[in-house]
């Protein structure tokens, strides 16, 4: 059967072979998975690791598409373009076909390991900091380096896009541009208005545009959108009050720091002056029981006594266009969103102004 398949493939111009390599210490039989980035929840294909860490995927690609190949068990997570030809992939490299060679050259020319290592130093300092002041200092330095890295990568991504406007490489470049750029929905929509169909229809680009549309719909000055929780609705908890709503998860270090440094003290200070704080638990990991246990444990560890809402439909972050947590919003008594993306000292300043009204 294998011989017949190989012979048949010789005459198929759409046939591809992906020859993969993981560390030779990975046991034979360990599974490697291939996902379509347009549907990351569904496994498209799988292959078993063979001798010396090798594995193979093969099939037809009538149109190029983007795959994610790897898995925790094999220590790999690589993105590549599935197109006709023979492609090689390992933990560091994707090459062999025309578009993948372009991406490989781009990655090597824009290596960020120098600045990434320095950013990691400040990230570790953030988590190890014994005080809010030292955490803020580490975060500021991290953010400064991140801005430099983003600028370098943004300039490079635009160069790659301008050379590949009508193919999948250009679509992947536009994904980076849309993620790195501080665009509004209208700005990104305008950029995409003249883009080729392969770029506009690329799932990550469409998803980013939808996220920015949700941000615009829930920005300052707009009415808040209700959220369904396990034990009620957001509206049940905030009606007629100035409300601080915190999107958080138990595993999120910055979330825990904001709660400890700011939200718990602010709750004690303003809960009898017309403020309600609601913790909106999102993105917890594991089974329902594991998520509930993690949430309860974090509440005890952080001494949280203000109301909590657990996102029962797991769509709250989509509704508000939340990409990262913590995401802290302030909502007025009449339901108008006063601010979002609040952090640190800015939280109390916004609360004080809202309570004066």
Q: How would you explain this protein's 3D organization?
A:
The chain has 357 residues and is α+β, with helices and mostly antiparallel strands. It has 3 domains: 2-95, Immunoglobulin-like (Sandwich); 113-217, no CATH class; 228-356, Glutaredoxin, CATH 3.40.30. The chain has 13 helices and 15 strands. It has a 5-stranded mixed β-sheet with strand order 13-12-11-14-15. A 4-stranded mixed β-sheet has the order 4-1-7-8, covered by helices on one side. Strands 3-2-5-6 form a 4-stranded antiparallel β-sheet. A hairpin with a 2-residue loop joins strand 9 (228-229) and strand 10. Helix 3 runs antiparallel to helix 4 and helix 5 (168-180) packs parallel to helix 8 (203-217). The longest helix has 32 residues, at 132-163. It is globular. The N and C termini lie far apart (77 Å). Mean pLDDT is 93; it is low at 1-9.
What structural keywords apply?
Immunoglobulin-like, Glutaredoxin, 13 helices, 3 domains, 21% strand, five-stranded mixed β-sheet, 357 residues, alpha+beta, 46% helix, disordered N terminus, four-stranded mixed β-sheet
